[in-house]
Amino acid sequence: MNNDRRGRVFKMIGWVGGIAVTWLVILPWLSDRDSTKAYLQRLRQQKIDPAAMYYTELPPEIFLDHQDLVR
Question: Where does the sequence pass through the membrane (predicted)?
Fold first, then answer.
């Protein structure tokens, strides 16, 4: 295997490894944080489906930084 091809293989392995770490480690860790759970609970209480959210149509009160938003 020449050096150019080997470099591309290692680059691909790095990208796949990075995506795997993100998907299998970082995202589950983020979903288990108290702030994420509180945010999802707040959405459930207001009967907002997070899978169907369009940010321009939502009331600013559901966002953590809604005090900073000015209309």
Answer: 12-30
pTM of the entire structure?
A: 0.56
The rounded distance, in Å, linking the Cα atoms of 44 and 50 is 9
Half-sphere exposure of 57 (CA within 13 A, CB side): 6
Number of domains in the chain: 1
Residue pair 42/62 in contact by the 8 Å Cβ criterion: yes
Query: Which spans in 1-71 are helix H?
Result: 3-21, 27-31, 34-45
Phi/psi at 60 (5° precision): -65, -20
The range of the structural domain enclosing residue 30 comes to 3-68
